[in-house]
Write a structure and sequence with these properties.
Two copies of one chain form a homodimer. Chain A is α+β, with helices and mostly antiparallel strands. Helix content of chain A is about 35%, strand content about 25%. Chain A has two domains: about 140 residues, PurM-like, N-terminal domain (60s Ribosomal Protein L30, Chain: A, 2-Layer Sandwich); about 150 residues, Phosphoribosyl-aminoimidazole Synthetase, Chain A, domain 2. Chain A has eleven helices and twelve strands.
C-alpha cells in the first residue's frame, strides 16, 4: 500500500459540515465556531516503524504526543485536549505504567489534558504495539496557517535544523514549536507546515497547495550535526516549521524574533509549479529515492 | 494484560483542565464551554478481536463508527465530527476504497464529518489491521448522562434486546441509539451507559459509579433470538442503552415513548453495593466466567 496515494484518492470523498473550513489534508482540521476555531488532528505510530520496540516507553509516549503537538504548532494554534488509543501485546505492567506516566508528564508540560483513551490487548505472536493520538486545540479565526496560503513573492523560512533525526535521537527528543508557531501566526504568516515527512516533501506541499513554484536555496539549509543535504532534505522527523512570509514581514520578523530557535530563509515562491534548486535542478526528481523511501 | 485493571490504575493520573467536567472513565469526556458541551471519545478495533479479517470492509468501517456513536448516544449527545487512524498490512486498493466509502456512507447517515485521518502500512507478516476512531459531539450543559448520576429508588431501564450479538450479526448491523439517547437526556434520565462489554458489567458500572446497589429482575431481560440469559448478561456488543430513571419519570416516559425500539424495566437501584438478582444471587459472582471472559 502507498499511504499517500491512497489518502489522496480517498480524502475528497469525505463531506464536510459547513463549519469545517479546513477538512482532512492539512496539518489539522479547522472547525470555525465564529469566535474561535477548534483544531483537530490524529496521528499514529507503530512499533518497528516509528520507534524501536525497546525504546523506553515514556519516550515513545512523549513522541506520540509531540508529533501531534507539532501539527497544532503548524496551524499556529494552542493545544488543549488529547485522546489516546493503545493496542499492545505487552504483558508487563511496568511498561504500561511508564508509558502512561510519560504521556501525562509530557502532556502537563504543554498544558494538555488526556481526556479519553482506549486500551486493547493484541495477540502475543504479532506486532508489539500500535498507538493513535487525537489532539484538539484552538486558534483564532483567520489565524489558522494553511498550506494553501503562500503567495508568489513570499520567502520560505524554516525554524531549527534538518537531517540526522533518527541517529541523533532528535526524533524522540524534539520540542514541538508551539510558542514559535503561535507567534508566527499572529500576522507574520498564514501558510505553515511542520516537517515530519522530510523538508523537501513537506515544503513541496505548501507549493502544491498554494499552486506555486518553490525555489530552495540548498546551501542555506541548516544541517543538524553536519549531516549531508540529502538527509536534511529527505529523512524527515525534524518537527520544525516551514512557513511562507512576505519579504517585508520577514524583515520585521527577524527584528522581533526572540526565541532561541534558529530562523533561516531557505527559499522563495514564484508563480508556476514544481520545486527546484536556485541552479534549476528539479529537486523532487533529484531526491526521488529519499522521497519514495518515505512514502511506500 | 488486563485492560480494565490497567486503565483503572492509570486513569486517575491524568490531570484535567477545569472546563473538563467529566474526564476519562465515562462513555465520553465532557468539556463544558458554558453555553454548550463538547463530547469526545475514542474507541479502537483490531482484526481477529473485534471482527473477522474477511468481514466486508464497509461493515468493519461502519461498526467502528457506530461503536463510537453509541458512546455519544449514552451521554445523550449529538455527534458531529470524527477522526480515523487506520494501520493495515493489506495491499489491496479495493479493500481501502470499500472501507473508506463505507465509513463515509455511515458517517453521512448520522450527519458526521470525517475531518481527519491517518493511514499506516503494517508489516506483511503480522496483524491484519488496527483502527481507532475519535468521535466528537455536543450536548447541552446539564444534560450529559453520567454513570454516576443514578439515585436510590431509580429504576433500571434498557432499550432493545440482549445476547447472541456475534452469531446473529447484530454486532455489525446494529443502529446506535442516538435519537433515543437524546430524547432520554431531555429530562428523563441523567445516568446512562451503552452496552458494549455486556449488560451485567455495564449495568454494574452505573451502580458502582453511583455508589448504589443494583437489583436486576432477570426474567424481564429481553432476549435476542431466544438466546439464553447468560448470553444476554455477558456477551456484550448489544449497543443498547441502560439508564436510571425515577418511577414517576418512567411512567411519563412509557406514555411518551414513540420509538420502535423496545423499552423495558429490568431492575432498580437501592442504597448499598453489589449487583444481585431479585432472589438475592450475587450476579457478578454467578456470571464470573462471562465477566472474566470479556476482560482479559
Amino acid at each position: 500500500m502507498n499511504e499517500l496515494a491512497t489518502l489522496q484518492r480517498i480524502l475528497p470523498i469525505f463531506q464536510q459540515r459547513p463549519e469545517i473550513t479546513t477538512g482532512p489534508g492539512d496539518d489539522c482540521a479547522v472547525i470555525n465556531f465564529g469566535n474561535t476555531c477548534l483544531l483537530a488532528a490524529v496521528d499514529q505510530m507503530a512499533a518497528g516503524i516509528h520507534y524501536y520496540p525497546d525504546t523506553k516507553p515514556e519516550r515513545i509516549a512523549a513522541k506520540l504526543l509531540k508529533r501531534n503537538l507539532s501539527d497544532i504548532a503548524a496551524m499556529g494554534g494552542t493545544p488543549a485536549y488529547a485522546l489516546l488509543s493503545l493496542a499492545s501485546k505487552r504483558a508487563d505492567d511496568d511498561w504500561f505504567n511508564a508509558f502512561y506516566y510519560g504521556l501525562e508528564q509530557e502532556a502537563r508540560r504543554w498544558n494538555v489534558s488526556i481526556c479519553g483513551g482506549d486500551l486493547c490487548a493484541l495477540p502475543a505472536d504479532g506486532l508489539e504495539d500500535v498507538m493513535s493520538l487525537t489532539i484538539l486545540g484552538w486558534c483564532q479565526p483567520g489565524n489558522a496557517c494553511l498550506r494553501s496560503n503562500a503567495k508568489a513573492g513570499d520567502l520560505l523560512y524554516a525554524t531549527g535544523c534538518f537531517g540526522d533525526s533518527l541517529k541523533s535521537g532528535h526524533h524522540l527528543d524534539f520540542a514541538p514549536r508551539l510558542a514559535e508557531g503561535a507567534f508566527l501566526a499572529q500576522g507574520f504568516t498564514s501558510a505553515m507546515i511542520d516537517v515530519s515527512d522530510g523538508l523537501l516533501l513537506d515544503a513541496s506541499r505548501i507549493a502544491e497547495a498554494s499552486k506555486l513554484a518553490l525555489i530552495i536555496d540548498m546551501p542555506t539549509i541548516p544541517l543538524r550535526n553536519d549531516t549531508d543535504t540529502a538527509s536534511a532534505m529527505c529523512d524527515g522527523e525534524d518537527y520544525e516549521l516551514l512557513f511562507a512570509i512576505s519579504p517585508d514581514a520577514a524583515q520585521q520578523l527577524e527584528r522581533l524574533w526572540d526565541f532561541e530557535t534558529k530562523l533561516t530563509c531557505i527559499g522563495h515562491f514564484e508563480s508556476g509549479y514544481g520545486v527546484t534548486s536556485t541552479d534549476g535542478h528539479n529537486l523532487l526528481k533529484e531526491f526521488k529515492t529519499g522521497y519514495e523511501h518515505r512514502n511506500t
